[in-house]
Amino acid sequence: MAFNSTSHSPSTQHEDSVPPSTSRKAGGWRAIAYILGNESFEKLASMSLIANLTVYLRTKYNLGGIFLVNVVTIWTGSSNVLSIAGAVVSDAYLGRFLTLLFGSISSLVGMGTIALTAAIPELRPPACHEPSVCEQPRGWQIVVLLLGLLLLAIGAGGIRPCNIAFGADQFDTRTEKGRARLESFFNWWYFSFTIALMIALTGVVYVQTNISWAIGFAIPTVCLACSIIIFLIGRRTYIIRKPQGSIFIDMAKVISASIKKRKVNLRQSSDHTFYSPATDEELEPTKLMLTDRFNCLNKAAVILDSSELDCQGQPTDSWRLCSVQQVEQLKCLVGIVPVWCSAIGCFVVMDQQNTFGNLQGIQMNQFLGPHFKVPPAWMGNTSMLALSFWIFIYQSLYLPTSRKIMKRDARITLKEKIRTGIVMSILCMVMAGIVEKKRRESALKHGSHVSPLSIGFLLPQFVLSGLTEAFAAVAIMEFFTVQMPESMRSIAGAVFFLSLSIGSYLSSLIVNIIHVATGKNGRQPWLGDHDLNKNRLDYYYFIIASLGVINFVYFTFFAGNYVSSKKAITTGGDLQLDNHSISQSRKFSA
Questions:
Q1: Which residues 6+ apart lie within 8 Å of 74 measured at CB?
Q2: Which CATH architecture is the domain 341-369+410-590 placed in?
Q3: Using CB atoms within 10 A of its CB, is residue 1 exposed (0-12), middle (13-18) or buried (19+)?
Q4: Torsion of Cα atoms, 274 then 280 then 282 then 284, to 10°
Q5: Which residues lie in Polar residues bias regions (predicted)?
Q6: How far apart (Å, rounded) are the C-alpha atoms in residues 482 and 496?
Q7: Comparing 23-243 with 341-369+410-590, is the CATH topology the same?
Q8: What backbone torsions phi and psi does residue 126 show, to the nearest 5 degrees?
Q9: How many percent of the chain have pLDDT more than 90?
Q10: What are phi and psi of 451, to 5 degrees?
Q11: Which of 469, 510, 511 is nearest to 383 (CA)?
């Protein structure tokens, strides 16, 4: 039995969703122009740091070994996990406009701090002329560096969960015209993101590595300042929606109510009354029905006594009584956990190229010809190009050809994509291990710190990393999106970022465990030395590959059962969804 009540009148809900000050001229493409300008400059700035942070810390701060890997991976993970906090603050308190503004300001101050460390020699240790004897940074120098990275992580936490959603707010998706414009916005958003990423990974990274780190970090600092100015100039054109409350808080309430009512036995009686108020169609287009899966959570919606509701039919204690809608939303999230765990395994592999992949490049022959020196961070372009090439082949060649030959839709299912992505992740680590073994042997044979082996030998592992992302990461993002009801689509991005962050933290944990385990009894540990020639990075890669095999078995025989075998998308809008998924996944794996 379900108890129905209406929590708010429709008119009240509409006033909450669109502020009274909003004029009919607000929103639309006029506002999107400013939003895309802000987004492009912000992404150019953030990606230019992400791509080259490992190289900067190694060459200018003389960091190496475990500490360097920990700094990069923990910062990566923190930037992603703070997106969850940013989403809660935005939805429940500040709204998307203010969250984006404060996040951008935090990023600007953080990037400015990093730029100062490059411009002022006293903020970092002296240059390292002999690889074997390098002066380490002082404690206060590390504090300044970490302060800059912390401000950047806080800024990312405010920007990432809000930028796409704020753009979507500018269109009325209740109309066909609004929905069509929203699809165009996603395509333009992805286009601007890709252009910014290409500029960051080529032009800015080249300036940082081969001309000046100070100028190379001043460029993204100026870009962030421009992004804030553009964002504020467009202030009067935006539709700024008021905070509606966070779905994460609702989920916490369901867990709390379930615990408080844990002694309720749902099997003893079928006469339980469940709290199921009417939902506003504008904010909750899909009303979820009560299901038997994860039945223990249903206790949160059971009305045990009439005193649990006030005179208007609202819960007197929302942490003790929740609606069926809230309960089923949490179930949707719980239902993707098996695949989410498998996603973490893929992201551990993708995370290696941002740290150890760049460190390999530093100790390889970087010259292309007698004069041109290839920045190690340029290898990240290879992953992006591999991802984009596959999407082009799949959308423009494979699908049209298969339709003509087979006379039917021959799309690759989500399950097949994820499984293929896991295989690519295994091959990536095996290839990385083989190349590292050859690089190390070549360096030791010639008695040099830098191996004569060309940096071009890193291309296969970066290509395979890009294909891992193209198959697994994009499909996982798509799976999270299609498994959620319409009102929870924004949660998919937050869950995706959380898996990225845990992948980074897990990578750091594995590195530290291997360092301790292999360094016992006075032995040389596999990881930890500033000189990769003294490490056994190849063994580490093979261990990660072994974990990938375990992940493949886990997905094939367990997690894959939670992925529908139906084709992911059957309409003409598939490219838009793929683009959105790709852009989400590339936000931090560049």
A1: 504, 505, 508
A2: Up-down Bundle (1.20)
A3: exposed
A4: -10
A5: 1-12
A6: 13
A7: yes
A8: -60, 155
A9: 23
A10: -70, 140
A11: 469
Q: Where are the domains of the chain?
A: 23-243, 246-334, 341-369+410-590
Residue 336: the pLDDT is 87
Smallest CA-to-CA distance from 241 within 105, 86, 98 is with 98
- The residue assigned the tokens 């609606």 is 323
Do residues 568 and 411 make contact, with C-beta atoms less than 8 angstroms apart? yes
| CATH class of the structural domain 23-243 | mainly alpha
Q: Under a CB-based contact definition with an 8 Å cutoff, are residues 16 and 556 in contact?
A: no
Instruction: Write the CA distances from 504 to 36, 63, 134, 387, 583, integer angstroms.
Output: 29, 19, 27, 21, 19
pLDDT at residue 6 above 60? no
User: CA dist 64 to 99, 362, 464, Å?
Assistant: 35, 12, 25
pLDDT of residue 147: 94
DSSP state, 220? H
Q: Which of 116, 189, 202 is nearest to 151 (CA)?
A: 116
DSSP collapsed to 3 states, 299-364: HHHEECCHHHECCCCCECCCCCCCCHHHHHHHHHHHHCHHHHHHHHHHHHHHHHHHHHHHHHHHCE
In the numeric block, which tokens belong to residue 232? 């504020």
Most confident of 35-44, 184-193, 418-427, 576-585: 418-427
Q: Provide, rounded to the nearest whole percent, the portion of the chain with pLDDT above 70.
A: 85
Write the CA distances from 374 to 225, 362, 402, 455, 534, integer angstroms. Answer: 29, 10, 40, 8, 24
CA dihedral 320, 323, 328, 330 (to 10 degrees): -40
- Could you tell me the strand order of the sheet in which 273-275 lies? 2-3, 273-275, 302-303
What is the end-to-end Cα distance of the chain in Å, rounded? Answer: 51
Average pLDDT over residues 225-244: 86
Task: Write down the residue that tokens 């009894």 correspond to.
Answer: 521
What is the DSSP secondary structure assignment for residue 530, as one 8-state letter?
S
Mean pLDDT, rounded, for 181-206: 75
With a CB cutoff of 8 Å and minimum separation 6, the contacts of 144 are 113, 116, 117, 123
- SS3 per-residue string spanning 52-98: HHHHHHHHHCCCCHHHHHHHHHHHHHHHHHHHHHHHHHHHHHHCHHH
Q: Is the pLDDT of residue 471 over 50?
A: yes
Please return the burial class of 163, using the count of CB atoms within 10 Å of its CB with bins 0-12, 13-18 and 19+. Answer: buried
Q: Return the residue matching tokens 């009303």.
A: 287
Parallel, antiparallel, or unpaired for β 364-365 and 302-303? unpaired
Q: What was the pLDDT predicted at 10? A: 35
82 vs 154: CA distance, rounded Å: 7
Q: What is the pLDDT of residues 538-590, one digit of tens each?
A: 999 999 999 999 999 999 999 888 886 544 333 333 333 344 444 444 444 44
